[in-house]
Amino acid sequence: MTEPLLLAATRVGTYSGNRLLTSASGFFFARDARLYVVTSRHVLIDEPTRHFPDRIAIDLHVDEQNLTRATGFSLPLYRDGKSIWRTGRDAGSAIDVAVIELERDALPDPVLLHAFTPAHLQAALDDVEVGAPVLIVGFPLGFHDTLHHLPVVRQAVIASSFGLRFQGQGYFLTDARTHRGTSGAPVVMRAAAAPDGGELPWKLLGIHSARLDIGDRDLQQDESLGLNCAWYADILMTLTDGSKTPPAGEEDAVAPAEPGGSP
Question: Considering the entire predicted model, what is its pTM?
Fold first, then answer.
């Protein structure tokens, strides 16, 4: 068996019909009896680049003894012309996080995965210090163990005050070498024991979004900052609150009139 952390992440492919558009990262989050796949909002829709997929596919392992056995599981993004994924806004801006609920009865039987839970979220922000080591678990440029269908891990450190929203936005910074395809990856910190008594001894701190750069950087003289945005993971408590009706807005967005634009 492999480390449970690697089975908590999944590769996310975006499609327009049968045409593959992009590859990204995601992970599983469970709350009560509900199970979700989490990724970045811009993986599911990105208006500036005309990225309008109509479905995603995730990898699921189906044999506990043989990790080479996996299957692609397709999820539509729209039903009756409206999105079935949830995202939202906070006081500062739109949030680059989205969740899609998985119907457990529709999953393969058996299925092998691990999911973060609310117990894995970091309750006390002051307990995470700047410079603390974290891991980003994902699929950079789509790269992964293609035989066993497992992600790779990049080392990172917290690069801004975890107790303060960076520039008033709902994210903190990490210092790490990242690439396209890592969007939607979990940012985790080792815990002494699994917070929920399960098999994941990790704290879920954030969701990797994108590299952060300076608009006026001299491309010839100045290297990239190597800094990244990671949205605070506690937003998942809002996005997975099944007792609330999704607010009007992006959660009820009409399906794009021109799906399949360039990613």
Answer: 0.89
